[in-house]
Amino acid sequence: MKKVSFKTLGCRLNQYETDALVTQFHQAGYQVVDYSKHADITVINTCTVTNQSDQKSRNTINHAARKNAGGIVVVTGCMANNHKEQLEANELITYVVDNEHKSSIVSLVDAHFKGEVVHPQSFPGDVFGFEAVDQSLHTRTSIKVQDGCDNFCTYCIVPSVRGRAVSRPLEEVLENIRRVVDNGFKEIVITGVNIGRYEYGQYNLERSIEKMAELPGDFRIRISSMEPDGFGPDFHKVFQHPKMAPHLHLCSQSGSDKILKLMRRMYTTSSFMEILNTFRKHSPDFNFTTDIIVGFPGESKEDFAETVRIAREAHFSHIHTFRYSRRKGTRADRLEDQVAEKIKSERSEVIRKISEENRIRYMQSMIGKEQQVLIEKLDRKGTAHGYGEHYLPVQFPSSDGTRNIFRKVKLKKVETSETPFIHGLDQSFSP
Predict the structure, then answer these.
(1) What tens digit of pLDDT does each residue of 192-233 get?
(2) Nearest in space to 131 (alpha carbons), one of 53, 272, 27
(3) Which of 128, 229, 236, 409 could be disulfide-bonded to 424 (CB atoms 3.0-4.6 Å)?
């Protein structure tokens, strides 16, 4: 059997597409091995959202080529769209496959080993052309419902590398969920580039999620990263369903209305906070995480102070902080008043510390409450590790040593280590 390994960089959508490729290669008779091991084929699913992402992708490509000398190196993902000619000129890379043809990688590799001279563009392009995942590198699986984006934020390269917004037919989505639940997955993550804009026929995101939650089976649904626009004022109601995980990664990017306008974000700070307040009015423990960009062109001390204020007042349990990265081809690259890298680093550290404080505070507020924890792994000491429905990392002594099952766990104590988590006690078998 030919051996294939994978390395994924970037977003959850990339992770889903890698998992789908793992399934396709497994079904085609290939042996999937860990990236650390030697492989005949290495697939690198790249990210290009920042300059740092590009550099990390290049380093990964060079490492894979050295590690698997003589093997096939397939580079795909957003960097394959953004720097296609540059990558194709790299002799270490066998094939460069853009996002539109990513689902054809197995066919491309099959043809290669049959001695056929083929090009990735020879195969049909279909951003939804993936099989339901049955072999995964993760305990949860994602369902891709949407691709592309029409927002054109001034800092963002994504519309150029993912294309215009397109939604997947709802029946395909529902069938995909049925199949992965049959394959044993307990947590389904709804993902896409801008899923708040999902629209297919009479179904928007809210109505489609209602249909998903009605499907039979012992599973829960988590929503991936979202923009704070595109969904209606009653979106919070879909989370009243017991299968819905009360957590959203809602991208704020800045707490300054001036900066939001320069970013071409379609909301204000007050409208963003109104969304959070509406959710928490109906579900006080609802967990919000977010993205924040620091050092955007023109961001003054006063603008950053507004971001600091929102970061604290919104009580995000985690803030993914980005230092603004200039991307050629975006409007923000042409803006004046570019912020010095030293200032970006200083501001990033301020937000990072607020994120840590918020995280511990939120965890402590949940002590004494119960969570439905999905066990993702068990260590040698018999301790189960997993996440509750609020996306809290929980560890507890396992009574039966079974992975990929739900357990009702009472939260007992916050462990404020380098990677904080909560100690719990399994209540599933308590009278």
Answers:
(1) 999 999 999 999 999 999 999 999 999 999 998 999 987 888
(2) 27
(3) 409
Question: What sections of 183-295 are H helices per DSSP?
Answer: 205-213, 257-263, 269-282
pLDDT digits (tens, 9 = 90+) for 97-122: 999 999 999 999 999 999 988 888 88
> For 189, how many CA atoms within 13 A lie in the half-sphere containing its CB?
24
Rounded average pLDDT over 291-313: 98
Q: How far is it, in rounded angstroms, from Cα 270 to Cα 288?
A: 16
Buried b (16+ CB within 10 A) or exposed e, 361-373: ebbeebeeeebbb
pLDDT value of residue 135:
60
Q: Do 12 and 289 meet the contact criterion of CB atoms below 8 Å apart?
A: no
Q: What is the pTM of this model?
A: 0.87
Residue 431: band (very low, low, confident or very high) from pLDDT cuts 50, 70, 90: very low
Taking the C-alpha atoms of residue 90 and residue 379, their distance in angstroms, rounded to an integer, is 42
- Strand-pairing partners, residue 375, are 386
Of all residues in the chain, what percent are helix, strand and coil, respectively (each to 5)?
A: 35, 25, 40
Query: Which two structure tokens, joined as six digits, stand for 381?
Result: 């000491």
Q: Hey, what amino acid is at 24? A: Q
What pLDDT is stored for residue 125 in this prediction? Answer: 82
Pick the CATH number of 3-122 from 3.40.50.300, 3.40.50.12160, 3.30.830.10, 3.40.50.720: 3.40.50.12160
- CB count within 10 Å of CB 51 equals 13
Q: What is the CA radius of gyration of the chain?
A: 22
- Homologous superfamily (CATH) for 141-365: tm_1862 like domain (3.80.30.20)
Position 126, amino acid: D
The topology under which CATH files domain 370-426 is: OB fold (Dihydrolipoamide Acetyltransferase, E2P) (2.40.50)
Spatial CA neighbour of 7 closest among 70, 82, 58, 51: 58
Tell me how far apart the alpha carbons of residues 121 and 96 are, in angstroms, rounded to a whole number: 10
